[in-house]
Automatic annotation (TrEMBL):
Domain of life of the organism encoding this protein: Bacteria
One Pfam entry name: AlkZ-like
Name of the protein this chain belongs to: Winged helix DNA-binding domain-containing protein
Length: 395
C-alpha cells in the first residue's frame, strides 16, 4: 500500500459498525426496508433471523413481525432469494438485478449443469424434457401466484418424478424433480421464496415468480454491489470481500478499481473503503448494547473478525460449520451470547468481562426485556445451534 493511506483503528471501526449497521440507539431505523437497505442483505437461511435482525435495529420493535411480513409478502419491497456464496438472503427488491448478475449467474450455470448431469447418469429424461417441465411449472406458478411444490405438481405431474442420485455410492439418494428444479430456478432468478406455511419462524415456504428485473452487465453489477457493501461495512480487506461475495480475487480487484475504492491501513493490513469515505467518523452519542440473532449479518459480515470478536469466544459462539449463534454486543464488540428458554425468558451470559460494569449489564438486561416483549408467546430455536445457546436454552 502506498504512503499516506489513513490508519483506521479498532475504535473507529466499531463506531462505523454501530452507526451504519443501525445498532447504536441514535441510528436505529423506522422500517424493515431501512434496515435491509442499510445492511445490503439480511441472512435468510434461518427464517427467524430476518425478523430478529430487523427487530434488533428498529427504534420501535413492537410491529416487527407485521411490518417485516408486509414488506416481504404484501408490498414485496423485500425479497428472499439466493445470493452471495449460494446462500439465501433477504434483499431490497431494487437490488435483485444487481445480486442476480453479480453473484447468481455463475452459480446458476453450475446448478443447471449439475442437475442435467445427475439426471443423465440416472437414465432420467433429457434437457428438452426438463425444459418443458420448467416452462409448465412457471406457467402454473404465474396462474397461482404462490404455491408449494406439491401444489405445483398438481398442475405439472412430472414434477413428482424421481431419479437416483449417486447410485452405488455411500451418499446415494433419491431426488424428486421438483426439489432440484425449483432450486435451479431459484438461483437462476426465476423464482423466489414466498409466504411460509405456518408462522414467521417456519422454514417451509411457498414459491413465487421473481420480480422482473433488467439483465445487467456482470462487471457493472459487481461494482455496484461492492460499492453498496463498502458503504455499509467498510473498511474491509480483500479477504473479507472475497469471502462475503464468493467471487474470485480478480473480480474483487476489478470491482474495487471500478468504484475508485480508497485503500486504508488496518491492524490486519490493507483495507478498503468506498471512494470519499476514508475520513474520520464520530463515535455514537452514547454506549450501546444489542442482542443479535444467529447468522446476523453484522456478526457474519467479515471473514477477519478479531476487531469485534475475540478468538477465545468462538468455540462457544459458533457451530462446527462456522455459523454464529445469538450474540451479545457492547459498544461494538461481541462479549457473550443469549438464548430463549421454553418459558420465553431471554437468558444471556457475558464471556468477555473486560470493561463490563453495571452500565453494560443494565443495558443488556434492557435489550433482553425489549426482545422478550415483542416476541411475546413465540419461541425461537436457531436452525444452527451452538454450545452456549444450547446451554443457556436448557436453563
Amino acid at each position: 500500500m502506498g504512503d499516506g493511506a489513513r490508519y483506521i483503528g479498532v475504535a473507529e471501526r466499531r463506531a462505523r459498525l454501530a452507526l451504519r449497521q443501525r445498532l447504536a440507539g441514535q441510528a436505529r431505523a423506522g422500517t424493515p426496508e431501512e434496515v435491509a437497505g442499510a445492511l445490503v442483505a439480511l441472512h435468510g437461511t434461518d427464517p427467524a433471523t430476518v425478523y430478529l435482525a430487523v427487530g434488533a435495529r428498529l427504534a420501535d420493535p413492537a410491529g416487527t413481525v407485521e411490518e417485516t411480513g408486509r414488506a416481504l409478502y404484501e408490498d414485496r419491497s423485500l425479497v428472499r432469494m439466493h445470493g452471495m456464496r449460494h446462500t439465501v438472503f433477504v434483499f431490497p427488491t431494487g437490488l435483485t438485478a444487481v445480486v442476480h448478475a453479480s453473484t447468481g449467474l455463475a452459480v446458476a450455470a453450475r446448478e443447471r449443469s449439475s442437475l442435467l448431469k445427475h439426471m443423465a447418469t440416472a437414465g432420467a429424461p433429457d434437457a428438452a424434457w426438463l425444459k418443458e417441465v420448467e416452462e409448465s411449472t412457471l406457467a402454473a406458478l404465474a396462474r397461482r401466484g404462490q404455491a408449494t411444490a406439491a401444489e405445483l405438481a398438481q398442475d405439472e405431474p412430472r414434477l413428482r418424478e424421481q431419479f437416483v442420485y449417486a447410485a452405488g455410492k455411500s451418499y446415494e439418494g433419491v431426488h424428486t424433480v421438483s426439489t432440484r428444479l425449483l432450486r435451479v430456478l431459484g438461483v437462476e432468478g426465476k423464482v423466489v421464496r414466498g409466504r411460509p406455511l405456518g408462522s414467521w419462524t417456519s422454514s417451509r415456504f411457498r414459491w413465487a415468480l421473481a420480480p422482473e428485473h433488467a439483465e445487467l452487465d456482470v462487471a457493472q453489477a459487481q461494482a455496484e454491489l461492492l460499492r453498496r457493501w463498502l458503504a455499509a461495512c467498510g473498511p474491509a480487506t480483500e479477504a473479507d470481500l472475497k469471502w462475503w461475495t464468493g467471487w474470485r480475487v480478480t473480480e474483487v480487484r476489478r470491482a474495487l478499481a471500478a468504484i475508485g475504492a480508497e485503500p486504508v491501513s488496518l491492524d490486519e493490513g490493507t483495507g478498503y473503503v468506498a471512494g470519499g469515505d476514508a475520513g474520520p467518523v464520530p463515535s455514537p452519542d452514547a454506549p450501546w448494547a444489542a442482542l443479535l440473532p444467529a447468522l446476523d449479518p453484522t456478526a457474519m459480515g467479515w471473514q477477519q473478525r478479531d476487531w469485534y470478536l475475540a478468538p477465545g469466544l468462538r468455540p462457544r459462539l459458533f457451530d462446527g460449520s462456522g455459523n454464529v449463534g445469538p450474540t451479545v454486543w457492547w459498544n461494538g464488540r461481541v462479549i457473550g451470547g443469549w438464548a430463549q428458554r421454553p418459558d420465553g425468558e431471554i437468558a444471556w451470559r457475558i464471556l468477555d468481562e473486560e470493561g463490563i460494569g453495571r452500565e453494560a449489564r443494565a443495558a443488556i438486561g434492557s435489550e433482553a426485556e425489549r426482545l422478550a416483549g415483542w416476541l411475546g408467546t413465540t419461541r425461537i430455536t436457531p436452525r444452527f445451534r451452538t454450545p452456549l445457546e444450547k446451554e443457556l436454552a436448557a436453563g
